[in-house]
Amino acid sequence: MIDNSLDIRAVLEFYTLSGVDETCGDGVCLALNVNSTKKEEFSKALRPVMSHLAVAATEAVKSAWDLCENVTTIDELKKIVEDFDGCTLKNTATHTVIGDGNPQAKLMFIGEAPGADEDRIGRAFVGRSGQLLDRMLASIGINRDKCYICNILPWRPPGNRAPADAEIAVCLPFLKKQIEIVNPDFIFMLGAVAVNSLIGGGESISRLRGKWMEYETEKGKKIKVLAGYHPAYLLRTPAQKSKAWADFLRLKKEMNKNN
Ligand code: URA
Known about the structure:
Structural class: alpha/beta
Number of strands: 6
Radius of gyration: 20 Å
Number of helices: 11
Shape: globular
Oligomer: single chain
Distance between the termini: 55 Å
Bound molecules: uracil
Strand order of the largest sheet: 1-3-2-4-6-5
Strand content: 5-15%
């Protein structure tokens, strides 16, 4: 049986031992460069903390699903996510960023999480990555009126750190509800975190990109999914832009078949 009582002393001992002197979320990232006696102390102190966090995350996931149950519009969903207290990323974010674009579109893009500009302005993909995404979309004749753009997470992780698995799990019901409301025929996943969060598999984006996959909604609708490089990666690695272009052409070709 899981002991879900929170032993505050154990939590503080664990944090002190770990050299933590500041908090900005519930994801703990530590390098355990200590001897085996210290490691034993760590794991003892950590046990009640981890079981508490696991229980809290499981409850938050359930609560997110329950809150979404009767939601039918993006506006209703936005209100629910803004009021949700099951993910501490909200505490460090300025805005809750839901989707941008056309909620009736047949094409949906899913990125990772808002960055600094998106967090400040409250709209998905408006910073440098978003500007590149807009140019890539324009190259295949699409603008934001013809697609819906959102993220796995509605809140920016502090300092743009990688999202923790528990954060993704807690926010996934909100994304899945957005997919159900928008009801697209095609989804393009931007980057490895996005595709692995929704479809799973844990593969690198260079292996996953360019291959058609499928996502099945809770209601049984099968949606065609393509993955490609995240625009932030393309800004850092412009040599890969030709592959991104090929993926967008693949998307356009498949969409044209449906017209
Ligand atoms: N990167 C993302 O994954 N999403 C955004 O909204 C902005 C940058």
